[in-house]
Amino acid sequence: MDLEGELTHLDLSDADAASSSGVDGGSESRRRICDNCSRPENVCLCGSLPSEPISTATQIVILHHPHEHRHKLSTVPILTKCLLNTHTIVGRRLRHGSSAMLDSLHSSSSTDQLPRAIYLFPGPTSTHISQLNPKPGTVLILFDATWKHAKEMVDASAEYLSTFAIRACLDCDFGETGGSIFDSELILRKEPFRGCVSTMEAAARALRFLEPNGPGIESRLLNVLREMVRFQTSHLKPMKPRPKLLKKVNLRKNKNDEIF
Q: Do residues 42 and 30 make contact, with C-beta atoms less than 8 angstroms apart?
């Protein structure tokens, strides 16, 4: 997902440095990593994290794409610091052997009248999560990846999930372009369409409907995400357009001039 514009784009090198080795790579102190949140000390989020991970009846399973596992803007590491009952699986699909918890649901699916798990992904077959009436202790399954990779992961996992999980979604609009880090205090990367959110925000929005104290949990998670976004935006800076991008824009301009 790209943050480029037509004429200018943003230099994310400072933001990346803030997530790996400090803002300007200067002193050793700026490179020190916090033992608790695993972020550089100058962008430490511990002041925003819950003093203890929040306990939920909902169990959260996150299928974490290998590419996202290395991405500096991934929200999964912080989400797992905030919530007690999270289980992260690095991979590209869910199948037998991926998770003992999911395998147990798969084995008992024939005796359950209601789905014991929900997986979030928008689409024509998805039910809005607010319309579901899940059992206490429902398993929430999230796919952490770019839009393209997440769709591939869902398709690859669909057969395995079909016997015990229902596909759900949050509010989204495929016909409207998504926002960027400048449009919302909760967006870290450019959205492919409106309503596509980070894994951390998706978890927060879903828990609002799944937990007795859902609104409170949602608020606490979103406060942490806001602080993470604030750190990233504070290290973004404009830079000159890339030569190839500038050439493309100039060619388009010349073509328009020829028309008139």
A: yes
- What does the mean pLDDT of the chain come to? 76
User: Which tokens hold the place of 107?
Assistant: 């084995």
SS3 213: coil
Q: Which two tokens stand for residue 4?
A: 């480029």
Distance CA(58)–CA(193), nearest Å, equals 28
Map out the domains of the chain as residue ranges: 48-240
Assign 17 a pLDDT band (cuts: 50, 70, 90). very low
Its CATH architecture, for the domain 48-240, is: 3-Layer(aba) Sandwich (3.40)
| 8 Å CB contact between 229 and 181 | yes
HEC profile of 116-146: CEEEECCCCCCEEHHHCCCCCCCEEEEEECC
Residue 128 pairs with which residues in a beta bridge?
Answer: 169
Sign of CA dihedral 98, 100, 102, 107: positive
- Within 10 angstroms of residue 154's Cβ, the number of other Cβ atoms is 22
Whether the predicted pLDDT of 241 surpasses 50: no
Q: Cβ distance 21 to 1 under 8 Å? A: no
Residues, the chain, total? 260
∠ CA 95-98-101, rounded to 5°: 105
DSSP output for 41-77: GGG--TTTS-SSPBP-SSEEEEEE-HHHHT-TT-SHH
Supply 212's token pair.
Answer: 């007795």
Question: What is the C-alpha to C-alpha distance for residues 167 and 205, in angstroms, rounded to an integer?
Answer: 15
